[in-house]
Design brief:
The complex is a heterotrimer of chains A (359), B (289) and C (256).
Chain A: H1 19-50, H2 59-82, H3 92-110, H4 114-136, H5 141-161, E1 171-172, E2 177-178, E3 181-182, H6 185-207, H7 210-220, H8 222-227, H9 232-257, E4 260-261, H10 263-266, H11 270-282, H12 289-303, H13 308-325, H14 330-350, H15 353-358
Antiparallel strand pairs in A: 1-4, 2-3
Helix pairs in contact in A: 1-14, 2-6, 2-9, 2-11, 2-12, 3-4, 3-5, 3-9, 4-9, 6-9, 7-9, 11-12, 12-13
Chain B: H1 2-30, H2 37-54, H3 59-82, H4 90-112, E1 127-130, E2 133-136, H5 137-159, H6 161-171, H7 173-178, H8 183-209, H9 217-229, H10 235-256, H11 264-275
Antiparallel strand pairs in B: 1-2
Helix pairs in contact in B: 1-5, 1-8, 1-9, 1-10, 2-3, 2-4, 2-8, 3-8, 5-6, 6-8, 9-10, 9-11
Chain C: E1 3-14, E2 17-28, E3 32-36, H1 43-50, E4 58-63, E5 66-67, H2 73-78, E6 81-83, H3 96-103, H4 111-115, H5 119-138, H6 154-166, E7 172-176, H7 184-201, E8 204-208, H8 212-218, E9 221-226, E10 229-234, H9 236-241, H10 243-249
Parallel strand pairs in C: 3-8, 3-9, 6-7, 7-8
Antiparallel strand pairs in C: 1-2, 1-4, 4-5, 9-10
Chain lengths: 359, 289, 256
């Protein structure tokens, strides 16, 4: 390729407008966009960390906020799978439960630190995810959806019936401690927020890496991905494992947010459906999609506490409307104008013919 | 003992089979995994209580009305909710039915409350001898109805014009449309059928498991697993899968303890799919799904 | 003779219909080899055998003298064999740059390092990007780097696909009807590019093509198959005069 680098400019290029310069300009602009995104996200997370400093904030608000964060993290796990790899799981509640019980049992029997519990929950969910991937990934679309749903159901049955997990009576845990220091609602909120920041950072890095490119290649055109050298089984297994591990973090946090786990909560397969819904409503192609979706899924029943059934109906109606009018999710709808504007600018600077035609 | 376990397994299995058939019908014709299938039956069971208690109807009038109402419900869901998104990818279709699930669930809880209700008709546990094994009258009745519905469906798909047209739509919707088959009407009919089957299931299940918004959740999962077991396209596969799950479950319940009964379906599907990813009688990726 | 890719006695059948029956061909190093034949002759099937997308009943494929029967499709690129598809097969919602960079997947290395942005992975990522930009320049795609491929005209998409294949630094390029559906200008441009890739980068090329004029112009050596079997082989001059070939193409719209 190097041989002709110097003699390839086409007629349209003048001295001041070499393609090379243009490419550099495009690169710079892209870098600037990315810097803006990072800056905005950093401000957002700083605001989240600063929120408990307001005088009116009560402990219960923070644990409610922690619950939202837990859902967001769980949905991030599904996002990696549904949004970026094009695989559908309706069984992530199972991984949530695995994370929760791993951490809860370790805390109960070995009295481990919260941080250790979270890491263990993540590892266990990831491990089981990797094993299950070998079965589920041979299935196509709808088969996989039902297979994973069956998995969540299976986990629920085990939790309900194997005495070790203490079924519906549940396991009551002592107060959380991090690095030997006991933490309350405030401390827990910070722990969950930090987990969320780390997970978001990771997903961002993943999506913008060659690995994420391989995931998306498999999502968009499987054959072309294979022709590019993407090992389908390897990358799908990786995606499934990462996805399960992220949801495992959420599970571990979920066990400690109320210091209690029971089959009543974790055996419910509709937990899985809720997580999937958070992704679909929020937006499956945008990293911040699950933020909106998680908030929606947790806060809707909260606002309609007295009218639980009404919140169910509302949930269903919103889901149907979103799928009808904004199939890529609400967040995608919100950021679309910005995205399009950026694309237009990039195209224009790049000198795209299609852009000129559109102007 | 063994014969008895198998027989009552077949009885439960036949109800899974009906659910599985409804799942397969809808999937074949609309690419939709209908998560709200169980809720059609749940609504049917609640309506059954109303028809029997408040309206004082007799059993068969109630059954007829429930089936008709569920058919209407199915058609309504298709026309109002599913049709606008009919051309989307299967994930959108699937999640839309989740929305329907939520709505029906919330609706039932709102109107009729969350606690379980007894169905006015009780399950008849009187044992009857059949092939040397004892089986309750209630189970026998359920099996009989399931067999009857299965027979009617078989007749519908092989002998009637609509049934044959429906199969043509499954095989190749575009050609079917060109041939003058009213595809949209067939799709509505599909959902009517799913509703009608659900009506029967609701009335048959209600005496066994009591009536509540959550009553069908477990059976629905079994129905799905059976449908996948059979390959999602095959009625025969779905029925065989459902009966196998019913029997295996009952045997596990009898010999391992009832705790492990419900895990059997999952273990079976994992074992099967590990060896045959396309299901028992499936044709993998016959259409992009 | 310096062989690069070779197949021997390939046989493929679909439910009783034999698509390839005992076909053999050799791609020489640094040459452009054409594979032609009337419609339904089994060209694409053979092509998919060579790229390992199609299983075969008997016969063997060799790359650099080594048997590669056991390789899976995604392993081909890692050995330096890149392919394109007859019907454009691209990541339509992604930009041209991302499409070409995906083609460089085989240069990425360990996926775990890549997703954690380790220094060595970032270095590789930069190399893949630089390479993609160079390829875009060669293919006159620089202006469309940030455009989604789905928005591009057909001829551009064909070039993006070629770019995706080139991004893997292949030593042999297998092209399935690269100019099908292109107008004369686009065909001429692609023809020029293929020749450039061959002469300047020393990449061997196997070309399955329907467009006779183009095949005759760019290929060094041509194989003709018909009804799933070898019919003739030789230089474009020899093929042009071969009575068997003329007979096989009689009735086809494109006469030789």
């Amino acid at each position: 390729m190097d041989a002709h680098k110097d003699n390839s400019p086409t007629a349209q290029d003048s001295q001041t407008d070499l393609p090379r310069n243009r490419t550099q300009a495009v690169r710079d602009l892209k870098r600037r966009f990315m810097r803006n995104d990072i800056l905005f996200s950093a401000l957002f997370f700083l605001a989240m960390l600063a929120a408990p400093l307001f005088p009116d904030v009560k402990g219960w608000m923070l644990s409610q906020a922690s619950l939202v964060i837990i859902y967001i993290i769980a949905a991030m796990g599904v996002l990696v799978l549904v949004g970026f790899t094009g695989l559908v799981s309706v069984g992530h509640g199972g991984f949530l439960a695995i994370g929760a019980y791993t951490s809860a049992l370790l805390t109960l029997h070995l009295n481990v630190d919260l941080v250790v519990g979270i890491v263990a929950g993540m590892a266990m969910a990831g491990l089981i995810g990797a094993v299950l991937a070998l079965i589920f990934l041979r299935l196509s679309g709808a088969f996989m959806a039902i297979g994973t749903l069956g998995f969540a159901f299976f986990v629920g049955t085990i939790l309900n019936n194997v005495p070790f997990f203490q079924g519906r009576d549940g396991i009551l845990l002592d107060a959380n401690h991090v690095l030997g220091i006991e933490i309350g609602d405030h401390g827990f909120y910070y722990v969950s927020t930090i987990c969320l920041v780390l997970v978001t950072l990771f997903v961002f890095a993943l999506v913008n890496s060659g690995t994420g490119r391989a995931f998306m290649a498999l999502r968009d055109a499987e054959k072309a991905a294979m022709a590019s050298g993407v090992n389908r089984l390897k990358y799908r297994t990786l995606a499934f494992t990462l996805s399960a591990a992220i949801t495992g973090i959420a599970g571990a946090l979920n066990a400690h947010v109320v210091n209690y786990v029971s089959a009543e909560v974790f055996a419910d397969i509709w937990y899985s459906v809720d997580i999937l819904m958070a992704v679909v409503v929020g937006g499956s192609t945008v990293i911040f999609g699950p933020f909106l979706g998680g908030f929606f899924v947790v806060m809707l029943p909260f606002f309609f506490e007295q009218l639980a059934d009404f919140s169910f109906i509302l949930k269903g109606v919103v889901l149907i409307l979103v799928l009808r009018f904004a199939p890529a999710g609400i967040m995608e709808l919100l950021v679309r104008p910005l995205k399009n504007a950026r694309r237009r600018r990039l195209r224009k600077i790049g000198g795209s013919m299609a852009a000129e035609e559109a102007e | 003992m063994l014969g008895q376990q198998i027989l009552s397994g077949l009885a439960t299995g036949s109800l899974y089979a009906l659910t599985a058939i409804a799942v397969v019908v809808v999937f074949r014709n609309t690419r939709t995994i209908n998560l709200a299938q169980g809720d059609f039956a749940m609504i049917g069971a609640f309506l059954g209580i109303i028809f029997l208690k408040d309206w004082g109807l007799n059993y068969f009038a109630m059954l007829l009305l429930v089936v008709a109402s569920c058919m209407f419900l199915g058609a309504f869901v298709e026309r109002v909710i599913m049709r606008p998104v009919a051309d989307s990818d299967w994930l959108t279709l699937f999640t839309t039915t989740i929305g329907v699930y939520y709505i029906l669930h919330g609706f039932a809880g709102w109107i009729w409350g969350r606690d379980t209700k007894a169905f006015p008709v009780s399950f008849d546990p009187t044992p009857v001898e059949l092939f040397g094994a004892l089986v309750s009258k209630g189970h026998l009745y359920n099996m009989g109805i399931a067999l009857l519905i299965g027979g009617v469906l078989w007749w519908f798909f092989t002998k009637t014009k609509q049934g044959i047209a429906m199969r043509a739509v499954t095989d190749d919707p575009e050609t079917a449309h060109l041939m003058g088959i009213p595809v949209k009407f067939i799709v509505t009919l599909t959902w009517c059928m799913a509703g009608a089957i659900a009506g029967f299931i609701g009335v048959l299940m209600a005496p066994i498991i009591y009536v509540s918004p959550e009553m069908m959740d477990e059976i629905l999962i079994k129905g799905y697993v059976a449908a996948v077991f059979g390959g999602l396209y095959s009625f025969r596969g779905a029925v065989i899968g459902a009966l196998m799950i019913g029997v295996a479950e009952n045997l596990a319940g009898g010999y391992l303890g009832s705790h492990y009964k419900t895990s059997v379906a999952f273990i079976m599907i994992v074992v099967l799919l590990a060896f045959r990813p396309q299901g028992l009688m499936g044709i993998q990726q016959r259409r992009e799904i | 003779m310096n062989e690069h890719l070779r197949c021997e006695g390939i046989r493929v059948s679909f439910g009783g219909v034999v698509a390839c029956d005992d076909i053999s061909l050799t791609v020489e190093k640094g040459k452009i080899i054409g594979l032609i034949g009337p419609n339904g002759a089994g060209k694409t099937t053979l092509f998919n055998v060579l790229t390992r997308f199609q299983p075969y009943e008997s016969g063997s494929v060799f790359h650099d003298g080594e048997n590669i029967d056991a390789l899976r499709p995604h392993e081909m690129v890692h050995r330096g064999l890149a392919r394109t598809f007859q019907n454009i097969n691209l990541f339509k919602d992604q930009t041209t740059l991302r499409n070409i960079m995906t083609g460089g997947h085989s240069l990425m290395g360990d996926p775990l390092q890549a997703m954690l942005w380790t220094p060595s992975a970032r270095q590789k990522e930069r190399e893949i990007e630089d390479r993609a930009l160079e390829i875009a320049e060669t293919l006159n795609l620089t202006s469309e780097l940030e455009n989604e491929v789905g928005n591009l005209p057909y001829g551009y998409q064909k070039r993006v696909e070629l770019g995706r294949a080139l991004a893997s630094k292949p030593s042999i390029l297998l092209l399935d009807e690269p100019v099908a559906g292109c107008n004369d200008d686009e065909t001429a441009e692609l023809q020029e590019i293929i020749r450039k890739v061959n002469t300047e980068l020393g990449v061997s090329v196997l070309l399955v093509e329907h467009d006779m004029k183009m095949v005759m112009k760019v290929c060094d050596y041509i194989y003709v198959i018909n009804f799933g079997s070898n019919l003739a082989q030789g230089t474009p001059e020899e093929i042009r005069k071969d009575p068997e070939v003329i007979k096989a193409y009689l009735g086809e719209e494109e006469h030789v």
